[in-house]
Specification:
236 residues; 5-stranded mixed β-sheet; alpha/beta
Length: 236
């Protein structure tokens, strides 16, 4: 609890952690050498509505929560889904965006995949540290579950036929495939995500003051259409 808060003066600025990978939510724009993306625009709009400045800092995904609990940053604004495990450690704002996993297959794979059951006995993959990797491992029906450091590595192996399918964040995949960043792969049409989650802003456990301020500002940018404009701008 900051002493300023106790006297009724809310902080004028917050340090915000975002990742350099996670396009279109957050990414490093090499032209400006700054972190850009839908969640950067969102936290800046929230700041404007809430009367504070958001100082966005580059942090790796794995370091976001530790940096928050160590008070190096005050808010996380990234493609971080709200999960019961994370809720034990940090507090989540009202949702800014909801999405589920996307299933990617080779571009020439004509099979219809309605669920993961259709991939029984195949080799599949997902990124390390994601809920998707846990999902595949818990399912226990695959020949092998491979883990990758990045979605780019996963799509490369997929395009080369080393794995049959992969799971990752649906909006990130859709954006990258549309930009031709990930070649030789496509999203499996007709696949129904089973793990739909909420992307929220994240604060330190018990930081009720910041949380209340964020939720009020989120409601405001939802109501005036700002948030809808941001998601449209990033094509998600």
């Amino acid at each position: 609890m900051h002493t300023a808060g106790a006297q009724g003066a809310a902080p004028a600025s917050y340090n915000v952690g975002a990742t350099a990978t996670g396009i279109p939510f957050t990414f490093l724009d090499i032209k400006t050498n700054s972190i850009q993306g839908m969640m950067v625009d969102t936290v800046q709009a929230v700041g404007k509505a809430g009367g504070f400045t958001a100082n966005v800092q580059q942090t790796t995904f794995a370091a976001l929560i530790p940096s928050l609990t160590a008070s190096k940053i005050d808010i996380v604004s990234a493609a971080m889904l709200k999960t019961p495990a994370r809720q034990q450690v940090v507090d989540f704002s009202d949702p800014v965006y909801s999405y589920g996993e996307g299933l990617i297959v080779k571009a020439d794979d004509a099979r219809a995949y309605a669920s993961l059951d259709d991939l029984k006995g195949e080799v599949v993959g997902a990124q390390v540290g994601t809920v998707f990797l846990d999902m595949l491992q818990k399912k226990g029906i695959f020949k092998e579950v491979r883990s990758y450091d990045s979605v780019a590595d996963l799509t490369r192996d997929l395009a080369l036929g080393r794995i049959k399918a992969g799971l990752a964040d649906q909006p990130i995949l859709a954006y990258q495939i549309r930009q031709n960043t990930f070649q030789g792969v496509k999203l499996a049409e007709g696949y129904k995500p089973s793990n739909v989650g909420d992307v929220c802003l994240v604060v330190r456990k018990g930081d009720a003051e910041t949380l209340q301020r964020l939720n009020k500002a989120i409601a405001s940018i939802k109501a005036d259409g700002t948030l809808a404009q941001i998601t449209k701008k990033w094509g998600i």
